[in-house]
Each structure stands twice: as structure tokens, then as C-alpha cells.
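C-alpha cells incoming
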């Protein structure tokens, strides 16, 4: 516990039993949990994601929530999405907002649909940037799903591919009311400085908020959000710090697991998750190891320096093979995104060689026929251990976007529970077993040739990735 003691000073903590946590491994299991828990919810359903898709499974999920909110008096539904992705029309002329419209039409007093609008995209820029590219400027990216007192933390969105063949991570935390309350408050705080959707799919400010994110004063909006969230985090330390068992090594009843949630809102000066991630990486000793997953590999300079210069721990980094990148095969210019990540990967690989770290820091590419890869997080193995004692899971990809632009949420799980440690270990093994190691030969294939225009974009605008 001394190794992870920094967590107590950085984030609110929640003590529980390892048996309350279940690691889900497949998209279908993730969808089934969402569906079944929506059908049985008694007091609240809170869904926070980048967007909601418009496919058959998404329709079934929304229909089930709609049915349940009509059946169950007092059931509150809160949905938080990104404004631009939430309003993007599909080929069928539907959007996340039109999918959710019937909730506020039939039970407006119990259903809140909120859409976060980055304050960066405004004025002329907002009018001229094509719809598919406005997300480069910042997103609502948190992935938190709450049903009564249980929580699913994930990096997955609410759409057909994430329910079928887009590999992500998902952890179900059962019957932990304090954690559910806290994360519900996180979503509630973001919702308050976001637009609210009414029954006509029109957008207005929250009744407790007075600054328009796209038309109001930029500095005033940013300052107000920073003050609001900072105050919430300070108060949360006093309200939710339930960790006497962390200090006495879990001797309180059968407590053996602790959860520390963290958020990142770089645009508003909130860097809680970055601090925790940096401090965790710095704890790595010579004989410890980190398994590291990211759907989009573009680590910040700070993370790079820690991995390559500040610690001597072993790293196995798992990322998407170009063919497992969600943008593979897309039309120009999005089709160049897999090439951009190939270039970034090659640059990192060359740095490991230059520093003689290529045996300590190994890169792997996930490739599974017909699947894409979006899993992210960390599994940390202490010196001499064959099972992880800590895992981070949530929405961040550990890159510039996650740190500086997007709104992110993550939890750090510290556990002594052998069953949970085994679940986490087997989870990462399943992900790595469908991957291949990156070597010099990886970049010699003709299909890995990087177009000059992609090189130029990465050189000039790496912070977009």
C-alpha cells in the first residue's frame, strides 16, 4: 500500500470487496449488462458517452429505457453526450438527439439530456469547420454508465460496433452506492455547464448556468467551469474519502479492494487524471512491469520522458494495428489517420532503440479479423508478482488530446483480491494474445509507407491525434 499511497492524496477513495467487481471481456457482454440493468433500474440511469448510435441495438436500448421510465415512477434518467457528435446525422437521417427525443417528450421532468459543447469551437471557426472534423477541437469523452448503485466504467461508446466487434474494456462495479453517487455527481456537474435538450430537440442553457459556451465570453466560461469543478473536487475529498481500511491493510471486515476515480479537463485547468497517471508511472521499479493499452498511441512528452528516462520498469504497450484502427479504409483525409499513428509508433520505436530500451519497452499491435481496437488502460505488476495489483480503466488514451482537449474519466483499482487480480490478468492476456510484436521489419512492408501529406500533418498538428 505504500507504493500507491499517493492515490489517497490525489482522489476520493472507495473501499469494497473484490467480489463486487466483474471484468467484462466482450462487447456483447457489455451490451447485455446495459440492457438488463436498464430494464431493472429502480431509481436512476445515468449514461455518459461521446455519442449514442442509431442502429438496431441502440434503438432496443433506448426503447427499454423509455419503457422503464414510463413504468417506474421516480426513476431519473440522465444522459450526457458531446454536442457535435450527438447532433451528427446518420445515413438514415437520425442522430443521438433524435433517438433520445421521446424520453424528454414523455417524461421531461425525470429525463435530462445534456450535450457538452467545447468553448474552443465558436464564431467563424464553428461555421466553416466540416461536421466530421469539429471533434478535433475537444470532446465530451467520459464513459460512465450508472444503474442505481452499480457502475460500468469503460472506454466504449453506445453504438453498434462497440456492442459487436470493436474491442474495448469494461468493468462492472456492483452495489457501491458511494461510488455511484460520486460518479453521478461528476456527470451532473458536466451536465450543468452543457446545453440541455428539450422535447423539440432545441438546446438551451441549464437553469443554474448563465454563460453560453459558444457565444459567451470564452475566458469567463472557462473560469466559471474551472471554479465549479475545482470546488466539487475539493468538497469530494471530505465527503467521499472512505478509506480507513487502506491504511490498516484491509483489516476492516473483508475489504480488500479500493477504487480511486479521476477526471481530466485540461482545457479548464483540471489535471487530476494526468497527475495520477504520471505518479503511477514514476513508481515503476526495475523488476515491476506495466501492461499499457491505448486505442490511439500518441503519448504526451511527459509520459514519454517518464517511460524512457525516469523509470526502469518493463513496459508492454498494446495499440491498434492499422487494419484495426477505426478509421482504416475511410475516405480522404480520415483514411490517413492509421498512417499517422503508424508514423507516431515508428518515431517512438526509434527512440526506444536510440536509448537502448527496445528490450524493456516493447510495442504490440492488436489484430483480430473483422475487429477494431479501442481498449485502453494500465495493468501494473509489482516486483515478483505474476498478477496485477493495480489497473486503470476509463476513457483516456494517454495522449495530448486526452490531457489537454477532451473531458475524460477513469478509475484506478487497487486490489489484494486474488480472484479479481486473476480476472484483470486474464483480461490483458486475452488482448495481447491477438497481437504481434513491433520490430524493424514491421515498418518495411509497402503497406506501411507513409504518404508525404500525412507526414506533414503529423509534423505540424500532432496534437490533433
Amino acid at each position: 500500500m505504500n507504493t500507491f499511497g499517493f492515490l489517497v492524496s490525489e482522489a476520493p477513495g472507495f473501499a469494497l470487496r473484490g467480489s463486487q467487481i466483474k471484468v467484462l471481456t466482450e462487447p456483447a457482454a457489455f451490451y447485455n449488462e446495459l440492457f438488463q440493468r436498464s430494464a431493472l433500474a429502480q431509481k436512476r440511469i445515468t449514461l455518459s458517452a461521446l455519442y449514442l448510435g442509431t442502429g438496431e441495438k441502440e434503438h432496443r436500448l433506448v426503447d427499454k429505457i423509455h419503457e422503464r421510465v414510463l413504468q417506474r415512477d421516480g426513476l431519473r434518467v440522465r444522459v450526457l453526450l458531446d454536442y457535435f457528435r450527438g447532433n451528427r446525422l446518420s445515413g438514415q437521417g437520425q442522430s443521438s438527439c433524435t433517438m433520445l427525443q421521446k424520453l424528454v417528450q414523455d417524461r421531461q421532468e425525470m429525463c435530462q439530456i445534456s450535450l457538452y459543447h467545447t468553448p474552443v469551437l465558436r464564431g467563424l471557426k464553428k461555421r466553416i469547420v466540416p461536421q466530421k472534423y469539429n471533434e478535433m477541437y475537444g470532446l465530451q469523452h467520459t464513459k460512465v454508465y450508472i444503474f442505481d448503485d452499480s457502475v460500468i466504467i469503460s472506454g466504449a461508446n453506445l453504438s453498434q460496433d462497440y456492442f459487436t466487434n470493436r474491442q474495448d474494456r469494461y468493468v462492472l462495479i456492483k452495489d457501491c452506492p458511494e461510488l455511484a453517487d460520486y460518479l453521478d455527481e461528476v456527470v451532473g456537474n458536466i451536465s450543468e455547464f452543457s446545453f440541455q435538450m428539450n422535447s423539440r430537440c432545441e438546446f438551451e442553457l441549464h437553469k443554474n448556468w448563465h454563460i453560453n459556451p459558444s457565444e459567451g465570453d470564452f475566458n469567463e466560461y472557462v473560469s466559471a467551469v474551472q471554479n465549479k469543478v475545482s470546488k466539487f473536487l475539493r468538497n469530494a475529498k471530505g465527503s467521499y474519502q472512505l478509506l480507513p481500511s487502506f491504511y490498516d491493510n484491509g483489516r476492516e471486515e473483508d475489504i480488500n479492494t479500493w477504487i480511486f476515480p479521476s477526471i481530466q479537463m485540461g482545457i479548464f485547468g483540471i489535471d487530476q487524471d494526468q497527475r495520477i497517471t504520471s505518479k503511477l508511472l514514476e513508481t515503476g521499479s526495475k523488476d515491476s512491469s506495466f501492461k499499457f493499452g491505448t486505442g490511439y498511441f500518441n503519448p504526451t512528452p511527459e509520459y514519454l520522458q517518464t517511460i524512457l528516462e525516469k523509470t526502469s520498469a518493463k513496459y508492454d504497450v498494446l495499440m491498434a494495428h492499422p487494419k484495426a484502427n477505426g478509421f482504416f479504409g475511410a475516405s480522404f483525409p480520415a483514411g490517413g489517420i492509421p498512417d499517422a499513428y503508424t508514423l507516431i509508433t515508428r518515431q517512438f520505436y526509434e527512440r526506444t532503440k536510440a536509448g537502448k530500451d527496445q528490450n524493456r519497452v516493447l510495442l504490440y499491435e492488436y489484430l483480430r479479423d473483422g475487429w477494431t481496437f479501442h481498449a485502453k488502460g494500465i495493468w501494473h505488476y509489482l516486483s515478483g508478482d505474476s498478477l496485477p495489483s493495480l489497473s486503470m480503466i476509463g476513457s483516456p488514451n494517454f495522449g495530448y488530446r486526452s490531457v489537454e482537449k477532451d473531458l475524460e474519466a477513469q478509475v484506478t483499482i487497487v486490489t489484494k483480491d486474488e480472484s479479481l487480480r486473476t480476472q484483470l490478468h486474464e483480461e490483458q492476456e486475452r488482448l495481447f494474445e491477438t497481437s504481434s510484436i513491433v520490430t524493424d521489419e514491421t515498418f518495411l512492408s509497402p503497406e506501411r509507407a507513409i504518404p508525404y501529406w500525412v507526414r506533414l500533418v503529423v509534423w505540424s498538428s500532432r496534437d490533433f491525434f
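note: The longest helix spans residues 218-240.
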